[in-house]
Amino acid sequence: QVQLVESGGGLVQAGGSLRLSCAASGRTFSSYAMGWFRQGPGKEREFVAYISATGGSTYYADSVKGRFTISRDNAKNTVSLQMNSLKPEDTAAYYCAAGRPRTTVRYEYDYDYWGQGTQVTVSS
Q1: How many other CB atoms are there within 10 angstroms of residue 91's CB atom?
Q2: What is the pLDDT along the chain (124 residues), one digit of tens a residue?
Q3: In whole angstroms, how large is the CA radius of gyration of the chain?
Q4: Strands 92-99 and 68-73: what pairing?
Q5: Which residues of 38-52 are buried (b: 16+ CB within 10 A; e: fewer)?
Q6: Alpha carbon of 34 to those of 41, 42, 87: distances in Å?
Q7: Residue 110 DSSP class
């Protein structure tokens, strides 16, 4: 069982930066792949970024590639999402998720545990 708690959301102007963090409980964090998803107003939840259990592999949605960076610290049971050059369309609730390594990484069913989310609002 893994419990996830996100933090770091807030209000930022377009072009600004935010760093989201996700703290995980449990002693098996390092065996889980981690992902970030987001759900904007009136939209379905969508994939944002993925990092493998070891941190050696990452993958991003095209909409955030080059602006967002996912990282993890297995010693501290945390995963982070550094978001730069934020745009109003990045406004959403952001969720971290944990899942056993699978072939695919960008679908909700790839993940077994979810946090409650943290709100990011980007003003124009």
Answers
A1: 18
A2: 899 999 999 999 999 999 999 999 987 899 999 999 999 999 999 999 999 999 999 999 999 999 999 999 999 999 999 999 999 999 999 999 999 988 888 999 999 999 999 999 999 9
A3: 13
A4: unpaired
A5: beeeeeebebbbbbe
A6: 24, 25, 24
A7: G
**Token pair of 29 as six digits:** 């964090």
Which tokens sit at 88? 């109003």
Q: Taking the chain, what is the end-to-end CA distance rounded to the nearest angstrom?
A: 40
d(CA 19, CA 22): 10
Tokens of 25: 């409980």
Q: Is 95 exposed, middle or buried (0-12, 13-18, 19+ CB in 10 A)?
A: buried
What length does the chain have?
124
